[in-house]
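Supplementary Methods S3. Input chains for the assembly prediction are listed below.
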Amino acid sequence: MALLRSWLRKAAAAAVAGVAALALVQTAPVRADDAKEPIRIGSFLAVTGPASFLGDPELKTLQLYIARINKEGGVLGRPLKLIHYDAQHLAKKAVTFTRRLLEQDKVDLIIGGSTTGTTMAVIKLVERAQTPFISLAGASVIIDPVKKWVFKTPHTDRLAVRKIYTDMKKRGLTKIGLLSGPGGFDKSCAGNARKLAGKYGITIVADEMHGKGDTDMTPQLTRIKNTPGVQAFLYCGFGAPTSIVARNYKQLGMTIPHYQSHGSASMKFIKGAQGGAEGVRLPVAALLVADQLPDDNPQKKVALAYKQAYESAYDDAVSTFGGHAYDALMIAVDAIRRAGTTDKAKVRDAIERTKNYIGADGIYNMSPTDHLGLDEKSFVMVEVRDGTWKLLK
Amino acid sequence: MSGVLSEFLQFLFSGLTVGAIYGLIGLGFAVIYNASHVINFAQGEFVMIGGMATVFLMAAGLPMPLAVVLAIAGAALVGWLLARIGIETARGAGVVGLIIITIGASILLRGLAQVVWDRNFHPLPPISGDAPIHVFGATLLPQSLWIGAALIAIMAALRFFFDHTRTGKAMQAAAIDPLAAQLMGIDIRRLVRLSFVLSAALGALAGVLVAPITMTYANVGVMLGLKGFAAAIVGGLGNPLGAIAGGLVVGIAEAMTAGYLSSAWKDVVAFVIILFVLLFLPNGLFGRAEVHRA
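Predicted structure tokens for the full assembly:
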């Protein structure tokens, strides 16, 4: 018995020593010039909740391509490490997580903010921390006026409205009914619709709104339908309401041309509408109709490659939202390579100098006054036919 | 003139459809409150389970009727588990503590739904198609009629249950005075469990009926649960039939406000109604005043 006890004592001592040694190794300070030190990319996205059809493909895209890049040797010889949090569409959560990313996780760069609301909430934080931030949200207010540390890859709602109005003008539609929801993107899109209407000779004869989590928009659509002289209908919103609006539109037997914004650029919109999306026109990034693009379109190759990679990795149809995350990541990686360092100021300058960058969702030409770098050409007008997107010539 | 009538009817149909949905959910709150004085803030999640489980069972190949039955049964099981594990084991926590437990259950169920199923939104096919029915120039979806029919059927079934079955009468007795009921030999624990199972099944049925209109997703229960709770308060907490009336009141008020006033005021209306009811009719439209001996 005594022998067993003494053996046990020795084993315990060895275990304690082993654990102590491990602890010391773990807490040993990592030197800044350690070649294997990963490049930390922080991210807060709307992975769950009502905006999940933005954040879910965005996260999947980031994870897929960061793993790929690491397999091919990383960037500047260092692996990429993704530190991500689910802020949903909530500005408060976005602020909390961004603080954590900047102060505790000490990220080199942030790609995130699936929604306009969450993006706008963290701008002061990233400016104070002087950390480059590439937003994945839609509203033009994010980069207009230009903010030194803030960039974005998705087309703005301003561009979308211009594209929609151009199409309306071509078809001779001048009096429109507008419906928008409560979200930051909705408000920005509707605001741009009101501001730009005059320039295209368009008058908004009905201006309706719906609430958060609303399940039936027939009252608002009835008002629009019964407005005398209304010739077309535009809905500014994203998520489940886009499908509900399309279904309500069909239920009411409305026949005026039906437009939605690029917030509806996802198969989930079509599926959720259960047939109500037929004939809807919207501006989308070329990615969605990559295979219908003419072969001489420089975006076709990049868009198809992304589409194939994403769809074979996940059982999910590609969406422009994932495309924005892909472009953001690739622009960030390209900028880090060009800068030759992860020094935040130098990377920021490199991002700002992005020229002719062919992404899945557009060709980017950034400048000190343009932190988006896209124009209407990277948008294409499509119509939903037979449950899928048809590129309009 | 017919334009005015058809417009009014359109708003009314919208209000009745949405109101019936709120009422069905409020029913679940009322039944549980009746048996245990607990407000089950996971009620919205039963609605979500009904819809999501049906979607995924159908995607796995099951025919819709079977998927619906299994989904409702699954939700009933979750309700039973919530009663057995969440409520009974924390009996000494007091009503407020139990309510907080249901809030925790709500968060847990939402998270589980996203992991087990997914984070997207899904439609369900309507029972008899979506060709709109024309009534005096307004349109009504067949699904709305099904929801209305289900509501009436459930109301009749509940009336029968509460007034003509032993268990139903026992539940009413427990609602009036739990101590006296226990002294009469009524097993309160069994009744509480039954109330959760019943509310869960009702909630899941509501979820299956409304998913073709509202679509279902992991967090659909949050807003629907809140509105259902509002319906239950307006109708008088503890009065199941009052909850249905409360739901219709809130739904119609919302639709009329959006239609005639301005859609911007729509959300305000529901809460103004609740405030009004709580201030001037604290027992709701149909609630029984509680009489306490001094």
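The first strand of chain B starts at residue 133 and ends at 135. The mean pLDDT of chain B is 87.
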